[in-house]
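User: Hi! I have a protein structure encoded as tokens and I'd like to know what sequence might fold into it. I'm fairly new to this, so please keep things simple.
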């Protein structure tokens, strides 16, 4: 009777642990399983080894997970093979992962059951990684930095022209700090973007512009095309205002967060189809927060592929003017994809350039103020137009003149609006209220027109 009761308790605990694993509560499931671990029957059980192996896998203890799952698979647990395939995938052993996935699929089909959504997602990510391995970008990594994961982006050294990466407590919109992990603000301080949970807890990119009175507009959610059924976060907008880098774990990711780049139409503000930036920037692990310093030709991104516990790795690299891919038939293409040794990306000819870029990074002052100029208009490559003579094409110079006139007109209208507001504060006359409302509409229209004129300047100078 005692043995029978013990067996019932054991079975109940295993069922409870399985339920918690299915719900994603791996820590609580492990607590239940650990209480049963002293039992010899438990230690030999394929169910125990599988469930504990999944808990170890999901909490990052990959060596122990491999041991437990291997034991479970050897005793006939089919699902253990699926997770062993996942471990092979995370180790960039795509061939072994494919074999284990195929074995799992055949076993499920043989028993008349579908492989399931988890298998389909694992396999999709594997195919994505295999495709990316055929087009690994050939880059020169100039530095690798291990930093605490919390607030890691504060270690990026970006010039003022690249904008700012803000901690939540630095965001001017206090009511939106709670759900954010960081925010991007452009150089002029009138555009901000960050990731924020929606009504059901899914993190979406939102953006806001600063109004003429210094307040910030209510955040506007970006379209679903940017998250693809997953989370989207860690935005970085280029100075041109149309090229956005961000991270998403949606269904175009090869595993965890991947870095994507997307262009938005300067006229309509509509985002086009995002593109996965591929390897070596992305991996089967989490990769995020790409920031480009166009002024100095230096890029930054972060990754947890090196399994450093509560730390992550920041890579600093030389930005290619034109993308060039590493030879996919090379014996070390896998090493270049996973960045086993970032120094291997530096050729003998690169060494002097690397030293110079490292010196540039160390001397970057984000708070540096530009010298006085006729105007300060960002170029697409991170430097600035400071006079009409800086433009190489006459149509662009004419467009810049229109932009400057519109900017001056906007400034005068803002001054008149401020004067009306001060007048209304002294005398709440209805006619003044109506004038303020009308002027506010005209000012916002003028701001939109200024954005269009700015896009015209870029388009005409670049011949597009």
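Assistant: Happy to help. Inverse folding works backwards from shape to sequence: for each of the 464 positions I chose a residue that suits the local structure. Here it is:
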């Amino acid at each position: 009777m005692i043995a029978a009761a013990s067996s019932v308790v054991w079975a109940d605990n295993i069922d409870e642990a399985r339920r918690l694993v299915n719900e994603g509560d791996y820590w609580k499931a492990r607590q239940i399983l650990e209480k049963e671990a002293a039992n010899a029957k438990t230690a030999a059980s394929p169910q125990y080894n599988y469930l504990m192996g999944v808990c170890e896998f999901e909490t990052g203890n990959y060596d122990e997970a491999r041991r437990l799952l291997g034991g479970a698979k050897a005793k006939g647990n089919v699902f253990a093979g699926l997770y062993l395939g996942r471990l092979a995938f995370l180790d960039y052993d795509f061939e072994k992962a494919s074999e284990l996935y195929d074995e799992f699929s055949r076993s499920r089909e043989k028993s008349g059951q579908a492989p399931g959504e988890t298998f389909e997602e694992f396999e999709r990510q594997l195919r994505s990684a295999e495709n990316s391995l055929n087009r690994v970008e050939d880059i020169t990594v100039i530095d690798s930095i291990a930093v605490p994961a919390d607030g890691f982006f504060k270690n990026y050294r970006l010039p003022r022209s690249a904008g700012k990466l803000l901690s939540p407590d630095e965001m001017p919109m206090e009511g939106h700090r709670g759900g954010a992990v960081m925010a991007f603000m452009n150089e002029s301080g009138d555009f901000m973007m960050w990731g924020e949970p929606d009504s059901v807890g899914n993190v979406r990119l939102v953006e806001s512009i600063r109004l003429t009175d210094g307040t910030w507009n209510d955040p506007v959610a970006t379209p679903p095309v940017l998250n693809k059924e997953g989370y989207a976060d860690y935005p970085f907008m280029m100075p041109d205002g149309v090229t956005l880098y961000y991270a998403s774990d949606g269904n175009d990711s090869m595993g965890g967060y991947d870095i994507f780049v997307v262009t938005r139409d300067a006229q309509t503000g509509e985002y086009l189809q995002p593109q996965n930036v591929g390897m070596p920037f992305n991996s089967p692990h989490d990769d995020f927060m790409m920031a480009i310093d166009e002024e100095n030709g230096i890029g930054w991104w972060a990754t947890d592929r090196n399994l450093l516990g509560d730390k992550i790795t920041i890579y600093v690299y030389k930005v290619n003017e034109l993308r060039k891919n590493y030879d996919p038939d090379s014996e070390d293409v896998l090493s270049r994809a996973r960045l086993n040794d970032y120094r291997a990306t530096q050729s003998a000819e690169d060494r002097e350039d690397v030293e110079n870029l490292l010196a540039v990074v160390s001397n970057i002052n984000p708070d540096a103020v530009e010298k006085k100029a006729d105007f300060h208009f960002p170029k697409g490559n991170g430097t600035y137009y400071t006079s009409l003579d800086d433009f190489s094409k006459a149509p662009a110079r004419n467009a810049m003149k229109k932009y400057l006139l519109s900017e001056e007109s906007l400034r005068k209208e803002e001054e008149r609006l401020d004067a009306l507001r001060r007048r209304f504060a002294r005398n709440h006359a209805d006619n003044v209220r109506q004038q303020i409302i009308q002027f506010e509409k005209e000012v916002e229209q003028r701001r939109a027109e200024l954005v269009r004129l700015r896009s015209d300047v870029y388009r005409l100078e670049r011949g597009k």
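A useful reference point when you look it over: The longest helix spans residues 394-426. Feel free to ask if any position seems puzzling.
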